[in-house]
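Lab notebook: predicted structure, single chain.

Context: the supervisor wants predicted structures on file for every construct in the current expression panel, including those that have not yet been purified. This is the next one on the list. No modifications to the sequence; it matches the entry in the shared construct table.
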Amino acid sequence: YQRRVHGGLIVAVIISGNIKPEAYTNFAGYVHFGAGLAAGMASLAAGLAIGIVGDSSVRAYGKQDKIFVAMILMLIFAEALGLYGLIISLLMNGVASNAGRVLKCLDADGKVPK
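Prediction complete. Output recorded below exactly as produced.
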C-alpha cells in the first residue's frame, strides 16, 4: 500500500513542478490528467492483484510449503503493474512538457513556419 502512495506522490510532485501558469495549455492539462489517471489506475490494479494473490497464496502456503517461490513470483509480477503505470505517467508528463515548446513554434494556422 505504501509503495502505491509513494508512486502517486512522486507523479503529483513532478507534474506540479512542470506547470507554468503563463504557458499552460489545455492539451498539457489533459495529458497531466491522463498521467494522474494512469498512475492511479495502475496502482489500484496492482493493489487489487497483490491482495488477491496474497490471500490465496498465504492460504496455499499454510497447506504446502513448496508454493513459497511461486507466491513470491506472483507478488513481484503484480507489483510490476504499478511500476508500469508510474513509468507511463512519467512519459506522459514529458510529452506535456514538450507540447508547450512545440505549440510555440507553430503559426496561427497550426503549421510550421518556413
